[in-house]
Amino acid sequence: MSTKAVLKRLAAFLWLFRGSLIVSFLCAAFSVLVNVAAPLFIGSIIDRISAGTDVASLLGDIGVLVLMYLLYSLLNWGMMAASNRIAFSSSSVLRRQLYAKLEQLPTAFYDQNARGDLISRFINDIDFISDGFLQSLSTMLSGIATIVLTLVFMLQINLIMTLIVVISAPFTYLVARIITVRTNRYFNEQANVLGKLNGFSEEMLTGIRTVKAFGFEQDAQQQFEAYDQQLYGAGVKAQFYGSLANPSTRFVMNSAYALVGAIGALSAFYGSITIGNISTFLMYSNLFSKPFTEITGVMTQLQSALSSGKRIFAIMDLPVQSEDVSMPDLQIREGAVSFDYVSFSYDAKKPLMRDLSLEVPAGSKVAIVGRTGAGKTTLVNLLMRFYDVDGGCIRIDGQRIDEVKRDSLRAQFGMVLQDTYLFEGTIAENIAYGKPQADRAEIIAAAKKSGAHEFIIRLNQGYDTRLHANSNILSQGQRQLLSITRVLLMNPHILILDEATSSIDTVSEQHVNQAMELLMEGKTSFIIAHRLSTIVDADQILVMEQGTVIEQGTHAELLAQNGAYTQLFNSQFAT
């Protein structure tokens, strides 16, 4: 996306807050009017002093001048308040829009983008837009108004001196333009490297135990320092070249200021201008040049804002998942699942599944086994439409899952993953995550079934104990029990279990297995199994390899075939 297109979109977004924008503009206009009128008043006072005006009259004029500058300060405060309101309101709206967009993106997007980089766009990039684009609004508004009004008043005083001041303005802009164009790529590089650094930091902090366990601290430190050095290099270049704009433009304007002063002195010597008018004009010359230096200084921030805007709009313009609002809800009667000639690949050049067909009767317990990368998790991802199939279709009770609403489809599933995740909130809130309307009695009943009730009541605040995403007050086994309790409370039609008891001790596992048996009774259940001893009683076992079901049957039937399943089974129990 071009810089011009980003600027146009940011301006259009800004117009959403036109109420505050108009207030800011009016305050800017009137504050500038007062600020520009003040030099005329000062020049008049100087001329009256030269003419020998009495002190009492001068004190009255000075009092009026103080009131004028007080009014200017109040109007300037109003302009800043309105501009800040726009800045913070727009940041809030933009973050909400970005979050809503991220929720609409397919799962593949998150597989291809680092979480830390996405967080950086949420926080850093939107702040850069606020600081660089929106906060500079007040400077640009007052600057444009000041330039126009001072030009009008300068023309009334002296044409030649006005031409000198005006002619210097294009040179000021040209110098600033050359510098800012050259610095644009450095600000783009700075924004991208900052996203990479945040992504790496988030990854390392999330997996800090793994980092320590494998003695990777020094390598991680070196990688972090490499990213940090890249950020330092890009940031220094961006800020250095950007900072050249202000002193360069000041040099041009100060040269013009000195020339105007010299011409004014000569004109006064020949009596064609008063001392008061010279003072007024020099003040106008300074007022006229000041917006140019301020605006060119703001352009450095603006470059950073435009770079961040590109990163934000890059996500906002991504295609979302197809709309399914007009589709019907999934209506489950029994829970039979069928895969009809399903084909799928994460990469078009590397097909994973080809013409996979599978029939899962309602209420059956199906185990999926195979080596790492065989396609076990992919099969489940397709079933829940985290990914859509490339060919064929999947049906539940005869209904194509791509012809029903995703929300209604996923509401029928209960998932217990090997890696648990607890959210910010109380234990009760975490258990009720899939059923927010559940009352405390239902929550406790589910916890008793899973065996979680015993350790929950031993906590200081019981079910009201607050947890964090990475809370350490619970063991991995206890966290898994809470995850299972969630599903028990939901009581879904179809279950997906990814080695649900892998992190639980033997005593707890007995309670969980009893609860799971109750839960799976009469429900279609898919079990991704790593420990084959846990699925010997499954109604059906699918052995997968390279996205294809190569063997299918009960535990006894597969052992009798003496094939791939037998090899897997024997490898786990070999002595």
UniProtKB/TrEMBL annotation:
Q: Nucleotide-binding: is it a keyword of this entry?
A: yes
Q: Which Pfam families match?
A: ABC_membrane (PF00664), ABC_tran (PF00005)
- The segment(s) forming the ABC transmembrane type-1 domain are 22-304
Describe its membrane topology.
Multi-pass membrane protein
User: Which keywords accompany this UniProt record?
Assistant: ATP-binding, Membrane, Nucleotide-binding, Transmembrane, Transmembrane helix
What are the GO MF terms of this UniProt record?
Answer: ATP binding
Where in or outside the cell is it found? Answer: Cell membrane
Q: Which residues form the ABC transporter domain?
A: 337-571
Locate the transmembrane regions by residue number. 21-43, 55-75, 133-153, 159-176, 256-284
Query: What protein am I looking at?
Result: ABC transporter ATP-binding protein
The root-end lineage is: Bacteria, Bacillati, Bacillota, Erysipelotrichia, Erysipelotrichales
